[in-house]
Design a protein that fits this description.
Length: 179
């Protein structure tokens, strides 16, 4: 069932630019073309760096999908979620200082710190946004709305929200939380 495959992620400059710009407004440099190769173990929805982690992460991923389905949020088409154990893997797939990042059209990469339901839910909600609003529209949305929705609906505690997003999350909750 599990097989070792050589997977390639091509992060085109446009996507890299958008993702980097929106994730880190102060980070302006980006790669024109990034092609990376790593040996990963992949199942139906996830790829892992260390085969020993596959079963536990696959279970965590499926349980997280079920928990957002229970809230009426569903992803029709999911890309691979790549679970990196090492920082080398994470940065080779385009990650930097954040815990996890989703690249529209390509996939999601999750660092070791993000191996939990809250972070996986957060990234799944970004894929719900990509599917429902379109990737470009999503990335052009105001940050308070895009990230506010992801942090709010994933049930993140205040100390799990980076300080620069907290005001936006508060604004989203004030506007959309049921009274
Ligand atoms: Zn986010």
């Amino acid at each position: 069932m599990r097989k070792k495959i050589k997977i390639s992620l091509i992060v085109i400059s446009f996507i890299s630019c958008l993702s980097v710009y929106f994730a880190r407004p102060n980070f302006y440099s980006f790669n024109l073309l990034r092609v990376e190769h790593l040996d990963l173990y992949c199942g139906e929805n996830i790829c892992v760096e260390d085969q020993n982690d596959f079963l536990a992460l696959n279970l965590l991923f499926q349980e997280t999908i079920d928990s957002i389905k229970a809230k009426g949020l569903e992803n029709a088409n999911l890309p691979y979620f790549v679970f990196c154990k090492s920082q080398t893997c994470y940065s080779q797939f385009g990650g930097r200082s954040e815990i996890a990042i989703s690249f529209p059209w390509l996939g999601t990469v999750v660092s070791l710190e993000g191996w939990n339901k809250t972070i996986i839910k957060h990234e799944l909600i970004h894929w719900v946004q990509f599917e429902n609003f379109g990737p470009v529209t999503t990335m052009l949305m105001p940050e308070w709305f895009r990230e506010g929705m992801a942090y709010s609906l994933s049930g993140a505690y205040n100390n799990q929200i980076p300080s620069h997003y907290r005001e936006g999350v508060k604004m989203y909750k004030e506007m959309f939380s049921s009274k």
